[in-house]
C-alpha cells in the first residue's frame, strides 16, 4: 500500500516483456482495488507503454495532442514535448467530459533526485 487512501506498489513485473493473461488480470484487479498502481524501475519503449495502458481499456484520442498517436510526451526537454519551456500547472485531465477518462498512464523517464513529486 502506498498510502491509507489509495495506491499499491507492485514488484516483479517487467512491462517491457509480454504479459500473460494471469498477470494482466492481477494488474487490472490491483487498479480496481487500489485506484493507483506503481511499478518502479521499468524501461519501456512507446509500444510497451501503449500495451500496458490498453490493459485498462481503450486509449482516448479526445485531446488535441492525442489525435495523431496513442501517447504524448509531457516534457520541457524534448522537442516533441507538449510543455516546451513552460510549466504544467495543476489540472485534471478530461474531467469535464460526459465520460471522463478511466485512468491516466504515466511513465517517468527523467526525474530529479529530490522534489518533483507528482
Entry keywords:
mainly alpha, two-stranded parallel ribbon, 118 residues, single chain
How would you describe this structure to a colleague?
With 118 residues, this protein is mostly helical. The protein has helices at residues 21-34, 46-53, and strands at residues 8-9, 37-38. It is globular and about 35 Å long. The protein has two helices and two strands. The model has no long low-confidence stretch (mean pLDDT 78).
How is the topology of this model organized?
Blueprint: E1 8-9, H1 21-34, E2 37-38, H2 46-53
**Would you count the extended β strands for me?**
2
Q: Averaging pLDDT over every residue, what do you get?
A: 78
Q: Helix- and strand-based class?
A: mainly alpha
How do the strands of the widest beta sheet line up side by side?
1-2
**In sequence order, what are the helices and strands, one letter per element?**
EHEH
Shape: globular
Main beta sheet, described? 2 strands, parallel
Question: What share of residues is helical?
Answer: 10-25%
Strand fraction: under 5%
Unreliable stretches covering 5 or more consecutive residues: none
Helices, by number, come to 2
Computed CA radius of gyration, to the nearest angstrom = 15 Å
N-C termini distance: 17 Å
Amino acid at each position: 500500500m502506498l498510502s491509507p487512501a489509495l495506491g499499491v506498489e507492485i514488484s516483479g513485473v517487467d512491462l517491457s516483456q509480454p504479459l500473460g493473461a494471469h498477470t494482466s488480470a492481477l494488474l487490472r484487479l490491483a487498479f480496481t482495488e487500489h485506484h493507483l498502481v506503481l511499478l518502479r524501475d521499468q524501461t519501456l519503449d512507446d509500444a510497451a507503454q501503449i500495451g500496458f495502458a490498453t490493459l485498462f481499456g481503450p486509449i482516448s484520442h479526445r485531446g488535441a495532442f492525442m489525435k495523431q498517436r496513442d501517447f504524448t510526451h509531457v516534457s520541457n526537454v524534448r522537442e516533441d514535448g507538449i510543455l516546451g519551456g513552460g510549466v504544467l500547472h495543476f489540472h485534471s485531465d478530461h474531467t469535464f467530459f460526459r465520460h471522463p477518462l478511466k485512468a491516466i498512464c504515466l511513465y517517468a523517464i527523467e526525474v530529479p533526485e529530490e522534489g518533483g513529486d507528482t
